[in-house]
Design goal:
The chain is α/β, with parallel strands linked by helices and 275 residues long. It is built from ten helices and six strands; from the N terminus they run αααββααβαβααββαα. Strands 1-3-2-4-6-5 form a six-stranded mixed beta sheet. β5 (229-234) and β6 form a beta hairpin. The N and C termini lie far apart (63 Å).
Length: 275
């Protein structure tokens, strides 16, 4: 195999892995192109359908009584309700409960549970959308290219892993990095709610439109939500919330970094006011 062909094959395998194709489902490969190129079989001519008799026909009684139909089985439950979480008093115990939870179907296809990273004494909590491929492999949120950019963004205003706590709206990677469904987000919502209550941050930063819409219960786009202080009600208090652009979006659209920089300055100013 030539060097260029080897590079093309390697790139194709990387793309397959990023899309969630990471295992074989058959013992032998199937040439789909050869199957599609096979000549179609000749179809038998359709038999002529006799015209219906316009005269009403008398209904003959059935030869045997019809069999009773078996009642249809009830549809399977999409999600198992989350267990009672009020009795959990530490983030470590909550992480164990999330790892043992089987109510989110994404857990069946993910490799690991990506619960959180950062300091449990942090004043700033960042919430993204969902783990990606690198996060699924390492079991921590925001450790890929987007995570490295996020670290640089935080460092620009004097924050790092010792002063922030980072998580996502769901803890398992959706296949092919697709957007999680509302049902999948809802299955993890009780854990995220308890996570916020136990951490008790002074400020929450929502990374991207999916997280902002979910946490703020709105249908507005991220460009309308970003750069404005909102409030999130957590049990007995309201927490200031700031939405901004997701680092993955900034990697695709570098021209939008100026908006994210304005949001970071707002965050820095807000933290200074709380001191």
């Amino acid at each position: 195999m030539s060097e260029s062909a080897a590079k093309q094959s390697s790139s194709l395998l990387d793309w397959y892995a990023a899309m969630g194709v990471d295992e074989a489902i058959g013992d032998a490969p199937v040439d789909r192109f050869a199957a599609s190129a096979a000549p179609p079989q000749a179809k038998e001519p359709l038999a002529k359908t006799p015209r219906p008799d316009p005269r009403p026909a008398s209904k003959a009684p059935p030869a045997t009584p019809p069999k009773a139909k078996r009642p249809a089985a009830p549809p399977p439950q999409a999600n198992t309700p989350a267990p009672a979480l009020d009795g959990i008093k530490t983030l470590a115990a909550l992480e164990e409960a999330a790892a043992a939870f089987d109510g989110c179907p994404l857990k069946r296809t993910a490799k690991t549970t990506c619960f959180a990273r950062g300091s449990e004494q942090a004043k700033v909590m960042l919430i993204g959308e969902a783990p990606g491929r690198d996060e699924d492999l390492q079991g921590k949120p925001f450790v890929g290219r987007a995570g490295k950019l996020l670290d640089k963004m935080l460092a620009s205003i004097g924050l790092d892993d010792t002063s922030v706590y980072i998580t996502n709206t769901i803890y398992w990677r959706p296949p092919g990095n697709r957007t999680p469904t509302p049902q999948e987000i809802a299955s993890c919502a009780p854990f995220l709610t308890r996570q916020i209550e136990l951490l008790a941050p002074e400020v929450i930063v929502l990374l991207g439109g999916a997280a902002a819409k979910s946490m703020l219960q709105t249908t507005e786009g991220i460009m309308r939500l970003r750069g404005k202080w909102k409030l999130y009600h957590a049990k007995d208090r309201d927490i200031p919330v700031l939405a901004t652009l997701h680092p993955a979006y900034l990697l695709r659209s570098p021209e939008a970094k100026r908006y994210a920089w304005r949001d970071l300055l707002m965050l820095k100013e807000g933290l200074s006011a709380l001191q």
